[in-house]
Structure formats: C-alpha cells, structure tokens
Amino acid sequence: MSENNKVVSHEGIITSINGQKAEVSILVKSACGECHIKGGCSLAEIQNKIIEADLRKDHFQVNEKVLVKMKESLGLRAVLLAYILPVFLIVLILFVSINLTKNENISALLSLVFTVIYFIILYFFKDKIRKTFNFSVHKLQS
What we know:
5 strands
C-alpha cells in the first residue's frame, strides 16, 4: 500500500441509515485503555463517538457491525486544521502584536480573539469541510 492510500479503520455499529449515509457508533480507546490496571488509573479513557459515514454499494442494516475507514492523510489534515494552525496563529499574532504594541496583555487578548475568529470561520465552512472528511463503511470479513 502506498503512503497516500493508508487508511485508519475502526469497528463500529450502525445506529441509523438515511439514504446513502449512516450514523455509526465507534468505541475510541486511548493508548492506555487496554492496560490491565486501567481501573485504578484516572488516565484510561474510552469514549463512544457517533460519526456520519458514506455507505458503499453493499446492503447494510441498523445494528450491523461494520468497519469504518478514512484515509490517514485526512486525519493529518484534521489535526492541522484543529490544532497546528490555531497554535501557529496564536504564536504569530502574539509576537507581531507584542512588537507593535509593546503591551503583553493586549497582545495576549488579540491572539485569543483572532483564534476565536479562526474557529468561527471553521464553523461557517463546516459543511465544505465535512465533504472533505468522509468516512466509508465496509462489511466485516467473517
């Protein structure tokens, strides 16, 4: 498999079907979620996530166990949009505004305001972004 075709996959259960879209419930575990002492540790984390995925040509039913896949590169793009760009924006605006205003409080406030504006812009483009980040549903191999 080439670098561009690597996929991330999770097992899930279809909770609802609407045309060519399905809501799939997947169980996301942290790295320490499988640890044998997780009951005594506050770091263990297991979350149930609901995602919207495209149905393939196969026939699916509600409550069917499936495999949900997404290109790994899309996951990296999501990290870029949600974490890396906002941090870069905070640091950039902080340094620029400190050099212009010579006031740390105003600079910190400006960097936070521009970060909030960034996330508001992301919110308004959420439908376009959602089209880019699509999951596909596949039958589990028996």
